[in-house]
Amino acid sequence: MSTEKVSEKATILVVDDTPDNLALMSNLLKSDYKVKVASGGEKALKIAGSDPKPDLILLDVMMPGMDGYEVCRQLKMDPATRHIPVIFLTAKAEAEDEAKGMDLGAVDYISKPISPPIVLARVKSQLALHRRGSTVRDLRAPLEDILKFAESMRGQAQPGQLTSLAGIVEAGRQGLRVLDEVLAQSPD
To answer: Is the peptide bond before 113 cis (omega within 30 degrees of 0)?
Structure first.
């Protein structure tokens, strides 16, 4: 990704209440990504809700005021931010902590102390998955338009055209089912 133009770099929002952690993550990511930082939950929600939205959020759990779990919950409840992948990056390393984070909609959970190569690999992987999911969601709209058009033409079609229109409608419905299955398996 380092060969991409700056304008094409993905934006990562790093949320942590410890300045040293923000600096560490910023330095780790800045050569390949645009990095935004937030030192608390309220600021993170504000940045995530602004345009352009971050492409991925690295989120600490233990923060004063609003913890990372609550930030994630609010992100996933908002239609404008629900598709932004969240990776928890935290010192909370118990299985139940990780399960709670994943249940809230996180795509990954990394325990501190971090391994820089592992963080970079997981960020890259989640961004690639997110891009694929976005592409599939974009395909849905034109397919729905084709399906609506074919269904609307049924009442105006000549007898010889009805079979063709029925085939288009069935193919469109099958395509939407496949897209829905792919989206159901998508991490975001």
So the answer is: yes
CATH fold for domain 6-114 = Rossmann fold (3.40.50)
As a residue count, the chain comes to 188
How confident is the model over 92-133, as pLDDT tens digits? Answer: 989 999 999 999 999 999 999 999 999 999 999 999 887 876
CB 143 within 8 A of CB 173: no
For the whole prediction, is pTM greater than 0.85?
Answer: no
Answer for the pair 25, 56: CB distance below 8 angstroms, yes or no: no
Cα separation, 72 vs 60, whole angstroms? 10
Burial class (CB in 10 A: 0-12, 13-18, 19+), 68: buried
Strand partners, 35: 12
Q: What confidence tens digit (pLDDT) does each residue in 140-180 have?
A: 788 888 888 888 888 888 888 888 888 888 888 888 888 77
